[in-house]
Design a protein that fits this description.
Blueprint (H helix, E strand, L loop, with lengths): L3 E9 L3 H12 L4 E5 L12 E2 L1 H9 L3 H6 L3 E3 L1 E6 L2 E7 L10 E3 L2 H12 L5 E5 L2 E8 L2 E9 L2 E12 L6 H6 L3 E3 L4 E9 L9 E5 L2 E7 L3 E9 L3 H7 L1 H11 L17 E4 L3 E3 L3 E2 L2 E3 L14 H21 L9 H35 L10 H8 L5 H8 L26
Parallel strand pairs: 1-2, 1-11, 2-8, 5-14, 11-20
Antiparallel strand pairs: 3-7, 4-7, 5-6, 9-10, 10-11, 12-18, 13-16, 13-17, 14-15, 15-16, 19-20
Helix pairs in contact: 1-4, 1-8, 8-9
The chain binds flavin-adenine dinucleotide.
The site of flavin-adenine dinucleotide (FAD) has 36 residues, from helix 1, strand 2, strand 9 and helix 8.
Length: 424
């Protein structure tokens, strides 16, 4: 492989934001290269939710039926159990969309799906095992990236670099973009527990005894999240696994007979929650999107949705100019500002809601000791009592603020000659 590559657009990071943008740019004929530091998409759990708004975008791209051929579960409602009382709080079946449910599909399957379609465009390239380590600069703009690959260091020169490398973005750090930390007083432990015959099949959460526990029914297993105070993992480790089993059983008695399936701390993954946002998402030659621009809390499970929406907005705003070889790199700068202007509002509102839930609901709750009485908050009572109201949280979670749509429904690049991903 040559140690220099030239492309119109280089995307650092093959997560939901990077793969979706890669697909969208490729389908309108733009030469695009996605660099992903891992060799595949099969990694730790990072969210399994494909929201109604993303499914709508798949429909607009003509890919919905193919996506729904892949194994998935459907969540039509969200339920929460507060101090033993079961409440339905969101009802996606009330949404007027192509799909009025959340598709629960492992993120790696969704990314595989995007990759499988992107590689049908000859101008799409995916380089895996390629870790971006720094930026190249020339003529007072970012002009590319440096990446470590199995074949050594590679320089990729591009008219536009996209930082889609997630919450620990190297790109945004190397660019010196200022980050505003919005604070996250919680961490989350993720784990899988087995499903047994007779289990309910609902996806929901449990609030009890100073604990908050989320259960996603994934067909053959439960994907579970347990909220702990920030930095609380050391104390949990010190108390030992048996004490942890007892904590889980107290909040989710359903699992009393199978918590031992968690055989060691390796089966329990820590997500150190971060909520932050770049003051400015771009520099000449560079744009950050997704978690790299605004790291999301897992509350509401909306991070993937926002990342995808950012990608769609970026493609809508940038495609025409990127597809025109007469448009020089410098001329793209005002468009980068436009992408931020378009997506800042949804990111800001969504993060504000997440921070409010963290600080006003979760922190007081997980501070309560086991015997303190827990009353059902009045908004939850209202939602449970008036089913029509459940459309509001369904809209907030399933669609979100200012949903994007594919403006250019006509793919321009041919898909006759499937290209292979450049992967090791
Ligand atoms: C444990 C966990 C559970 C979550 N649950 C949910 C959920 O249920 N629903 C939901 O919507 N959101 C959830 N989220 C949040 C969601 O995962 C993110 O908001 C979303 O994935 C952001 O997408 P992204 O493409 O911006 O970044 P990421 O998904 O983080 O993707 C970034 C990609 O860049 C790659 N990368 C990183 N650095 C480099 C580099 N230097 N060079 C090349 N490649 C690089 C990474 O390997 C990764 O593939 C969860 C997050 C975590 C951690």
């Amino acid at each position: 492989m040559p140690n220099e590559i030239h492309t119109r657009c280089c995307i650092a990071g093959g997560g939901p934001a990077g793969m979706m943008l890669g697909l969208l740019l490729a389908r309108v004929g733009i030469d695009v290269l996605v660099l992903e530091k891992h060799g595949d998409f099969l990694r730790d759990f990072r969210g399994d939710t494909v929201h109604p708004s993303t499914l709508e975008l798949m429909h607009e791209l003509g890919l919905l039926q193919a996506l729904l051929q892949r194994p998935h579960d459907k969540a039509f409602q969200l339920t929460i159990s507060v101090a033993g009382q079961d409440l339905t709080i969101a009802d996606f079946s009330r949404l007027r969309m192509q799909c009025n449910f959340i598709a629960l599909m492992p993120q790696w399957d969704f990314l595989d799906f995007l990759r499988d379609h992107a590689v049908t465009y000859p101008n799409f390239r995916l380089l895996q095992n390629a870790e971006v380590t720094g930026l190249l600069e020339s003529d007072e703009r970012i002009s590319g990236v440096r990446a470590n690959t199995d074949d050594g260091t590679l320089k990729i020169y591009a008219d536009l670099v996209i930082g889609a490398d997630g919450r620990h973005s190297i790109v945004r750090k190397a660019a010196g973009l200022a980050v505003r930390d919005l604070g996250a007083p919680i961490d989350v432990l993720w784990m899988r527990l087995p499903v047994t015959a007779g289990d309910p099949s609902t996806t929901g959460a449990r609030l009890d005894a100073g604990k908050f526990f989320v259960m996603l029914h994934r067909g053959s297993y439960w994907q579970c999240a347990y909220v702990i105070p920030k930095g609380g993992i050391d104390a949990i480790h010190a108390r030992g696994l048996n004490a942890f089993y007892a904590e889980l059983t107290a909040v989710a008695p359903l699992f009393a007979d199978r918590v031992q399936a968690l055989q060691s701390w390796d089966d329990i993954k820590l997500l150190s929650v971060t909520v932050d946002r770049l003051e400015r998402w771009w520099k000449p030659g560079l744009l950050c999107i997704g978690d790299a621009a605004h790291a999301m809390s897992p509350i509401g499970g909306v991070g993937i949705n926002l990342a995808i929406q950012d990608a769609v907005a970026a493609a809508n705003i940038l495609s025409k100019s990127l597809a025109n070889p007469q448009v020089r790199a410098e001329a793209l700068t005002p468009l980068l500002q436009q992408v931020q202007s378009r997506r800042l509002f949804p990111a800001r509102i969504t993060q504000a809601i997440q921070v409010a839930i963290q600080n006003r609901v979760l922190v007081p709750l997980i501070g309560k000791q086991g015997k303190q009485a827990l009353t059902v908050p009045w908004p939850l009572k209202l939602l449970n009592r008036w089913p029509a109201l459940r459309k509001l949280p369904a809209y907030a979670v399933g669609i979100g603020v200012q949903p994007e749509h594919i403006l250019d429904r006509q793919a321009h690049a041919g898909s006759q000659a499937p290209a292979q991903p450049i992967s090791k």
